[in-house]
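Page 47, continued from p. 46.
Same chain as before, 300 aa.
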Amino acid sequence: MGTTEKKPHILVLSASTGGGHMRAAEGIEKCLLERHPSIDVTNVDMMNHVSWLFRTLYVDSYMDMMKHHRRLYELLYTMMDKEPEKMPMQRFRLWLQWLNSVSAHKALLKLGPDHIICTHFTAAEMLSRARRKGYNIPPTSVVVTDFDVHWMWIHRALDEFFVADHEAAARLATRGVAEEHIHVTGIPVCPGFARTYDAQEQKKALGLTPGTLTLMLMAGGFGVSSIDRTARRLLGHFGHLQLIAVAGRNEALRASLDRVAAEFPGRLAAIGFTTEVEKYMAASDLIISKPDGLTTSECM
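Result:
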């Protein structure tokens, strides 16, 4: 009896603390399966494998800061952009994270991956610490989903780093990552963004007027924005304008956008969470959004 050769298994590991990291993971998964159908790809949200308390605190605190305390988020982001070994607060954060995720990497390794790709720094932090503690971690790549490279992304115990541009590569190199392990590839997006869509047909499909200036407002995957107020003001001030507004998973925001659409019939297409954002971008002449690495790359 012949033996069946084991297919290569890639584990794509992200974290649901913002839609961009998850979209990057989705893009990698889809591209791998399109180009290499003979391999197995498992796409995992590591937040499903950490303690309930840690997941709640981590995700909820991020969402709360993005909604209500953006200056605090900016302050913490800047303060923590230093080598972790030189920052007591960073060392404590990493220790606490390890305590709450030690079971996660064990569960993930049971999946038997031949290679791991991280699209979130938390996943990279966990695997880097596990390897330094002697765990047998398979080759691991880090895909930086920002145009800037924060210290949180830099884990020299891991193997390969993929970045947006040469400026990001230089930043990694100055922070101690060997140049032969840095690859300039751009930020991964879903294959749909490589396709061509007819802008006027997409406008028509949304109930908008072809040939009319169209702006797209995006609140991000979790709908952390007040684009309903922005939409009302824009439509009220510019009679020649029409809008596409994407509320993400925020149902209250979507309902508010529906009310704005009723005030301006035929001029606002209100969208909830979508996996077809490329079609809406194709219909748009200008996009207004929180400019994270993924959204910027998708626009380009």
